[in-house]
Protein: Exocyst complex component SEC5
Amino acid sequence: MSMLNINIESDRNTLLDFYQLKTLDPKSFKQDTIPSTLKVDLSTEDLSQIPKEVVNHLLGDNMNDLKDTKHQIRPNSIKRQGKDQYSDALGFHQNILDDLIDKDILDDTRDPQLNKFMVDSKLFNPKLFLSVIHSDKSLNQLMIGIKNLENDIESKKPLLQKLITNNFEKTLNSKNSLDKIFNEFSSSNLGNEIDNLNKNLASSNNSANQMLNPILLMISKEQELSNAVNYVKQNKFFIDLPKKLKLYIEEDNFDSVIKEYERGVSTYQQMKLEQKNNALFDKIWNTVLKIINDYKLSMIEDLKKIHIELISSNFKSQINTKKSNFVLLIKRIIELSPDENPIKNFIDVQYQYILKYLDKGMAKINYERLYNARNSIYNLYDTTDMPDQSLINDNSLLKMSAMRIFSTFSSKTFSESEINNTSDKFDSLIVTEIWKFVFDYVHNVTEDVISNKIMRFESIVEYFVHDFQETLSDRAKNSSFTFDAAYLKDMKVYFETMSSKICGRLTFLFSCTFDDLTNALKLTAVEGSHAVLPPVGKSDINNPISFGFIPNNTNSISTIYSTVKLFNKIQEKLSQLKDNNLVLNSKDITDKIDTAIFEINKNMIKGCLSLLLSDIRKLALCDNMQPNEEIFGATKLVTVLLNYYKVFISKLHELIVFKNDETKTIIEETFQKSFDLLLEGMIENIKRNIAIDSYRTDYYYLATVYNMRNFSNEVLPQILKSFDTNFQSDLSTKKDLAIFKKIKSYEYSVFVDYMKQPISVLKQIVDTGISELEDKSYGISDKIAPGETINVSNYVLKAINNINNLKSKLQNFNIRDSFISDVKASLIVHLQQRMTSSFSVDFSDEAKYQIALDIDVLLILISKYNEKSHQQSRLDTKKFEEAYKSLCKNIDTSSLEKNRDINLSFNYVQFVCFTTL
Structure:
């Protein structure tokens, strides 16, 4: 029989239970006397009939019964020797009673709770002892205390052994002494005394036997218990395995789980080889298998909860951390069960999750909100058939956005770099909200779907195909997780399917018409993932509403800046798809991606050009004809046009990635058409401004004429040069470019249209004067003879006055001098022509004299006007001179010259104003 070791807790507990002791180190035996109140019949032969509680009471701790005795002995009356009375078992305190009283745990030594803190009491509570007495101790300090306790127990081991030996020896010695006394008395002649003593000895012997038999029985049980303990010790690992595995799983200590599990597998297999069939061990092993299986199932469930977008993009750098992640879970499953393959299931789950997301109609956006927002703009501000005069209405979204562009691009502090951050400010808030939907959609497709789902899906597959095996143990490397050629082919099909769906979604958005997109949103809102996108209609560059991705009533600047950002994002992400390993050798999907990028780019360009055509007339109509602070005679429109076209051309160049003749032709034709629309808008704007303020009619006309001239001579050449630089064209070098001829034609027609009114006034003055000439000249002959002065006709002076007044008015409008000269020259020419065409041979001599005088004065004035004019601007007076010579055949020219000079002198101020440029 092996010896019990009192240094081992289980052995100590066995001794205490066996001997019904409360301590293995008693200090006094004074209280061990059985109280007289306890009556036990020791004559019985059947020891089992003695009540268990009585035996336990006899052999155990009687402290709890002390309260019932006449002498209630309290804890403070127990005599203990020296420092051990209330000493700390861990060796830190000399007296724990003082500490308990100081902490208000106990009032004094009479407090019954004291036993919970006394190590030698059966009521001792180790958790309470540590939490109260040693709550301030660190782990290292407690380890030192445990060492002190172990040393103390070791030092008292001999005393315990001696105590047990002495108890047995006392009992045996008592019996031997009694037997010896009995023999001695038996050899004597004591008679009755011996009989009485014999009876007493028999009774004592019986009592001793009753005391010894239970002890001997307990010794036998101790042997059995010791054998059981040894058996448990020998198989302690296997018996404790379920408990250990649960603990390690709770602590997420997988290394210990796999280590203990593999050791358990080996141990159990060895038992089977040795044919040690044991129901207990089979049950334990079944428990182990259930624990491991539940652990794997829990990890499989955790894998199902991991969606692709929750996986970090740099997951490869995190796979060696202890933080739970999909790689770690899969690795653990394979390590625990190498014959399982959770990878394929994980990848299939992720693919189905992505596919379900992609099949949600348009995309994961608020369809109803987008649909309502688009319709609200369309219904409230529908301008598809709206005449341009509606721009006068300040409530028009088109008017507001165009005015913002005009104001920004006409500013002295205009900076192209600032537009990039403020381009959305040109739109109203409701239109900006629609643009946000488009950007949200593209972000959803590029970042949320392509980057966070499809690209991550590909990187995960790549990792499992090439790198994952190296992270496994040698035992697990031979598992069935590897990908065969068929499964790799499936992966490529997965990737192609997802890529095709994304390309289809993006191509639809940027190819559909307004009606197509509206129908798609309706279908998606109603049918959800079952919605099938309708076929797209045909876009028309002359109709912005045929481009579904462009919000109603947005402007060209917002559109060109937005599309550049959108396309850059789309091209970047789709190109990353094309460069993926799973798709590099797939020509089909590569072609689909290239086609999608091309179609999106082409439609974006056409959409921007459509807005260019739509906006250019609006910009002309936004010109309220305020003078240009930098270009005299022009309005702010010419500055707006130069800045606007340069910005638009620059951003459009950023958008073009595919250089082909078709796109180049569309761009050239659209830009030239925009110039035509610009000129039309400038002419329409004259009427718009006249309707607002007719007094400035002259200014509106002549400022517009100069705007056209400045645009032709200064702005357009710069635009064409920028155009050629960005699009590798040669428009700026073409001398016969039709637009220049059109500008001159428009310029001339505007000027002619303007001159209709002043010429009409002049015509009326001349015609009225000529019709009254015969009557007004009557009696001139009577005045010539005495040398009286003949005055120039009133209609001539009135005509000159009209021209002078118009000149003064134009000067007040800050019209350029060259244009004032043109207006003046046109009126003088018309004056000559009207007077010449009105002459009649039927005039009387007096009337002819008056006409000759009028022509002579005008010829002198025109001559002085020509002297101050440039060679190319001088007026032709040839026909006027011929008419004068014809009239002077029968007239005294000396008289004419005299009266001419007098009139020139008399009307000097008026005539000087007329001859001055």
About this structure: The mean pLDDT is 79.
